[in-house]
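Quick illustration, no need to memorize.
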Amino acid sequence: MDAFPRKANPAVYDRILDLRRELNIEPVEVHHYVAVQEVVELIRENFGIAFLTQGPASQIAGSEIAVRPLSHEALQLKTYLVMRADESSRLVNEFGRAFLKKVRAMPREVEHLGQLQLDL
């Protein structure tokens, strides 16, 4: 199994390991990578699977390596953009607007929580 270092994203890393334990999957070896090319070489040398984010995964798609998204509920994370309602900083407000323009709103709105689920 190839995985990013835990310090890169502790929450996702821990969820992957927890799910692995729940499913009683015991990897023979665990390799931590830094660069995408390390993953490609490890997989080519028959070291199994790798967990990547969408960006790096799309870089290696189309080679002799199969890339599939993970959709298991335990691996889904919620991320929030939090700002003060009375923020007076133009920079902060511009960032917030730019962020919201960049993401696409998914049709499912969680009205009772006053939240919108976004697809990044």
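The chain has two domains: 2-75, 78-120.
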